Amino acid sequence: METYESLLAAVVATEGETRDSVNPATDEVIGKVQKQSIEDLEAAIDKAEAAQPAWAALGDDERRAYLHQAADKIEASAEALAELLSREQGKPLNGPNARFEVGGCVAWTRTAAETPLPVEVLVDDESGYAEMHYRPIGVVGAISPWNWPMMISIWQIAPSLRMGNTVVIKPADTTALSVRALVAVMNQVLPEGVLNVVTGPGRTVGDALTRSPKIGKIMFTGSTPVGQQIIEASANNVTRLTLELGGNDAGIVLPDVDPAAIAEDLFWGAFINTGQTCAALKRLYVHDSVYDQVVEELAKVAANVPMGVGLDENNVLGPLQNRGQFDTVDRLVEAAKASGARVVLGGEPDRDAPGNFYPTTIVADIDPHNDLVVEEQFGPALPIIRYTDLDEVIKLANELEFGLGSSVWTQDRAKALEVAGRLQAGTTWINSHGGLHPMVPFGGAKKSGYGREFGVEGLKAVAEPQVISGR
Length: 471
Known about the structure:
CATH superfamily of the largest domain: Aldehyde Dehydrogenase, Chain A, domain 1
CATH class of the largest domain: Alpha Beta
Strand content: 15-25%
């Protein structure tokens, strides 16, 4: 079991070129992160390539056993990992935050180990016999973001290892210590070279990872523009890709709801991780007949959810992870205010205070084409749009280029299914938003990316299908 101090000492840089990792709640320096080079990346790729044949040769049962051992190690060091994550990412320990995220790492690792993927018999009759096998691809290059740095890294690492690949992961610069720590804990049991981490700028190290001919698969979670760059950079090598990109999720509230009953679920759908979640509820369309009541009840919930430094056990909302994201949210809310939209709650940050705290903000009576609605704010500011015509609001929900998630809120299940079937999104939730399950495939439509993670489909996505056919 690691302590926070021993874990930090194991991952901070003590020599070479470094950058400071800063607590976004206090502006205090946590430690130094190594700024590695393209040469360091190439060495890590070579190491992974050399280790891959032996890892694949272990067979499925042994790899599954290793993943369970890695999950045990994460579980044993959970509190130290959560503290480091809270300090570096900013999210509080409690609520659906740091401890929750580390627990998710354990759950997703165990699920990746336990999900069955037998040989599929495709044809077995007088015409012949054919079966489908799933083979390792080779080396997987993983690029993880700063919003859920540990858990999304596990979404990339665990299925890749299960299927016999080795991994080179490049975390986001601002949460690199958290991912280094997670990898260090897992590597206490994994064979040498199977899981490797390289920290460095995306424009150099990340770009080189996507261009490497030795990488058979890239898994990326992040913005659509960076995803487009990865597609171009990897094209010459015909690298397999799973891209979970930007989202601007719409929720549609139908007129039969009980506003007080749905308010808390609406809140967490929008404001989990202080709104810094790809599949968070980012624009809410509410029918005119219940609009004022939904706004009122949601504001009541939001006003009573404490925000502050993550190590304070009372807080469940934290700062924005970096100043650039703070500036984005601030710009969009100020533009909404200037346009005449009504700020129901929040909207007045202390720009000179320590940390990147932006208050929980609800904006009502806003034009459906306002920038706060059509741009992904990725922070704690929710625009609520009034509607009267269902066909028109479905058109509004679908007209953006994003299609990660969506939700429908109603007491009429048949109506919910009808509306859900008309929404263009990888996932549509009914009377909730953003909940994920390790056995339920997840991914985007349109410019929110392609490929699926989790469950059987997630395992297949990090494998090379091979048909064996004959009589």
